[in-house]
Amino acid sequence: MKKSILALVLLLAVTSSGFADNSRTNKDFNFDWKFHLGDVNEAQNSQFDDADWRLLNLPHDWSIEQSYTTENTAGSTGFLPTGIGWYRKTFEVASAWKNTITHIEFDGVYRNSEVWINGHYLGKRPYGYSAFTYELSQYLNYGGENTIAVKVDHSNYADSRWYSGSGIYRSVRLVNTSKVYVPQFGAWVETPQVTTQNAKVVLAVVVKNAERKSQKLNIKVLIKDKQNNTIAKADEKLSSTSCDTANLSLSLKNPKLWSIEQTNMYKAEIQVLSGKNIVDTYTVDFGVRSIRFDANKGFFLNDKSVKLKGVCLHHDAGAVGAVFIRDVWKRRLLKLKEIGVNAIRLAHNPGDPGLLTLCDEMGFVVINEALDEWKRNKSKWITSRFADDMRPDLETGYGDDFDEWAERDVKDMVRYSRNHPSIIMWSMGNEIEWTYPYYFKMEKSNQGLGNKVLVEETGDGHDELKETAEQIEKWIKEVDQSRFVTTGGVLPRAGNITGYFDVPDVIGYNYRAQNYDEDHKNYPNRLMYGSENWGTYQEWKDAVDRDFVAGIFIWTGIAYLGESGPFPWKGLEISLLDFSAFYTPRGHFYRTLWNDKPYTYLATKHAKKAQWKYENGKFIDNRVQNWLDKWLFEDVEQTWNYNEGDSVFVEVYSNSPQVELFVNKKSYGLKSPSDFSDHIVKYLVSYQVGEIKAVGVNADIKEAEYAIRTAKYISKIVLKADRTNMNANGYDAIHIEAFTQTKSGDLVPDKEMQLSFTIEGEGVNIGVDNGWDRNVQNHKSNLIVTHNGRAMLLVQSTRKAGEIKISAKAGKLESNEIVIITE
Asked: Where is the domain boundary, 240, 266, 286?
């Protein structure tokens, strides 16, 4: 049989470098896998015939490829099918690898993955967010064919409260080293003392020795700057027998600090030498920075006070599901940055390594979160979170795996991500109190009776929740003591009684701003922040007015699949950006709160449909309040299309001291955001065909404006690309935004139109969407119906250089053509 391209590449790498010097090969293992949806007998065996299986590249999420349905799906997980899937990959290994060590590394497989090499069982990993590795060396056919097989069992479709995805949805690598090597996550860097004049850098390097004989080694570290200049070095002798750790320290003079504004990074090149030969080289990217919390003054980065302007993010990305695509997430983070976001809470599971790298590069501080469930599973629902249709027989979750796997999963979360300077806290979990009913009784009990309730409910006052938290915190600090441990707490009164709220270094308050002052008074040394917050002005004001509250994290930054229903409500858009990362009204509003650059935006609503009424010179909220309204934002639209004479409510968001509204150049007067309790300026006007415009005014100077014009008839389709070239690497992706416009170029937001995209050349359609939370069209299509006058197509490069031509049409209307160059 002909040798595969992979085998030839590996053979060349081995032949050119040899194993006596610098012997590490780290190969991208994402391309050319075979996939089958459904369980298959004997698929783990090398002789199994997979000729009719689908050929694809990783990362891959099979659920997002399917159609939304209510059959064997759940509203809690986004109405997308799950099931069992198999992956296989056949590759050749050079004979020169025979006396070496080979591992396969997975960044994440959802869920219950089992892995075989050449029919030999390697192991199982239930948790879908853990990075893990297996050694292949003893089972490989050197100089011949090898087959890796992965079974993914995501049969339980109600195992989460949001969309998780299904499959090998994160990257895979094949790593080859000598028998003396640094293992996966085996080196980490800390900067315990930092000033602008000098930084102490401490490194720990684990070295494994599979030679079965003692080795006298020298561990050498070279610190390199962005230009690859060596600016500091250190070395340490090590006598290695099986697995040993070298500890090194050095100083950096005048270090360039990592911060939100300046994301300076360094590289530690770690060389393992036996005699004069470099037997392994391992690199670590890191940043130099200091972090601390103060019980009265909040969070400090490099001794500078920073108020956390944070958002919570789930790991799915709209039309591409759980698959991490760097360009997709870079666009999303750029938009959050534009709004003013400086902090991200990865809710409620560990984030992709690539996402953490982006946060390092772009300047976000991060909370990486371990688990949403501990020993007890949370309720899930099939139809809707509003319906009483919980199915205990289908409800599974991490509680089923906690006792056996939690220590390993928690520690691996810390190990794989501890070199990222963006991470400032490790979160143990989220709202775990929901799974302990006696916490609700304590929260509602009369003052002083909480402990009595605890004893009555548990029999002996034994609080499993607090003890579990103490155990998780211990696991984290066994691996990393340079960062803070936190958790998202939701019942502070009960947590104060049991002591649960005293376990983490920093306690997060989920939707409990009303407890800030009392708890700060009663627990003056407590470090606190808002770990989940409604996206309202009041939530931000509650933090701004209190230096001791480090900041807030809005639920959520970007719309996410799941936690929804009834069908076709597929997910929650209570966010700054919708599913396609288009701005929502809330996003425009928070841009005026979190960004100092002058910005003004307006939106409208027919008076008969608006949430507001105007009485006696005041704007009054006309909604029938329920618990969900606390998450919802103003139901407004970006339109100036009404009937002549209609009464229309207008909302203006601005960070200018005053705003002035004009309808066809007629002024409706100056108003100030500070005059409104929600910081949103409101007007009631009579509709006229033409233009409505809001102007931000500062000391009689116009500093920002926004206008909408009457636009009722679609005359053209306009495509816009976020870049004009890509690398022909099979990874790069481009966003094509489509807009329905009038002849003069104004958006027509009120008319839906089905677009048909055409892609020619070296590009692949990886998803379409329109950002709407009720859009249940299949994402893997060239057809999409616009929403609010817009839609989006995502195109990924192939591995062949060339040209991509992209266009769209609807009936007789044809768009402009976008040409993308890949090289």
From this structure: 286
Are 582 and 631 in the same domain?
no
704 close to 598: Cβ distance less than 8 angstroms: yes
Residue 762 has a pLDDT of: 97
Burial class from Cβ neighbours inside 10 Å (0-12, 13-18, 19+) for residue 346 reads buried
Determine the pLDDT at residue 257: 98
The domain containing residue 745 runs over which residues?
A: 716-822
Q: Are residues 411 and 528 in the same domain?
A: yes
Answer yes or no: is 67 within a domain: no
Is a pLDDT exceeding 80 seen at residue 569? Answer: yes
Same domain, 321 and 363: yes
Question: Which amino acid, residue 267?
Answer: K
Token look-up 């100030």 returns 672
The continuous run of DSSP H or E covering 223 comes out as strand 215-224
Specify whether the CB–CB gap between 652 and 593 falls below 8 A.
Answer: no
pLDDT reading at 705 higher than 60 = yes
Residues 199-219: tens digit of each pLDDT: 999 999 999 999 888 889 999
Instruction: Compute the distance between CA of residue 65 and CA of residue 321 in angstroms, rounded to an integer.
Output: 8
CATH number at residue 728: 2.60.40.10
| Phi-psi group of 524: left, alpha or beta (phi > 0 → left; psi -120 to 50 → alpha; rest → beta) | alpha
Instruction: Round to whole Å and give the CA distance between 654 and 662.
Output: 15
Task: Express each pLDDT in 278-318 by its tens digit.
Answer: 999 999 999 999 999 999 999 999 999 999 999 999 999 99
Same domain flag for 303 and 422: yes
> Within this chain, do residues 282 and 379 fall inside the same structural domain, yes or no?
no
DSSP of 287-334: ----EEEETTTEEEETTEE--EEEEEE-S--GGGTT---HHHHHHHHH
Task: Mark whether 585 and 602 lie in a shared domain.
Answer: no
Domain count, the chain: 5
Q: Is residue 630 part of a domain?
A: yes
Round to whole Å and give the CA distance between 160 and 563: 9
Do residues 539 and 512 make contact, with C-beta atoms less than 8 angstroms apart?
no
Tokens of 669: 């007067």
Helices then strands, counting H and E runs in the chain, come out as: 11, 50
Strand partners, 216: 239
- For the chain, what is the radius of gyration of the CA atoms? 28
Residue 291, in any domain of the structure: no
Q: Are 539 and 552 a contacting pair, CB within 8 Å? A: yes
Task: Estimate the crossing angle of helix 326-339 against helix 353-362, to 10 degrees.
Answer: 40
Which two structure tokens, joined as six digits, stand for 482? 């340079």
Statement: the pTM of the whole predicted model exceeds 0.90: yes
Q: In this structure, are residues 599 and 655 in contact, taking their beta carbons and an 8 Å threshold?
A: yes
Distance CA 207, CA 187 (A): 9
Domain boundary among 657, 680, 709: 709
Evaluate whether 356 touches 420 at the Cβ level (below 8 Å): yes
**Three-state DSSP class for residue 550:** strand
Q: Is residue 674 part of a domain?
A: yes
Provide the β-strand partners of residue 767: 794
Provide the token pair at 207. Answer: 């070295």
CA distance 8 to 17: 14
Residues 489 and 406: their CA atoms lie apart, in Å, by: 19
Tokens for 590, please give them.
């928070």
Phi first, then psi, for residue 675 (nearest 5°) are -85, -5
Residue 300 to residue 293: CA distance in whole angstroms: 6
* 175/208 Cα distance (integer angstroms): 14
698 and 727 in a single domain? The answer is no
Among residues 676, 417, 365, the alpha carbon closest in space to that of 529 is found at 365
For residues 328 and 407, membership in a common domain is answered with yes
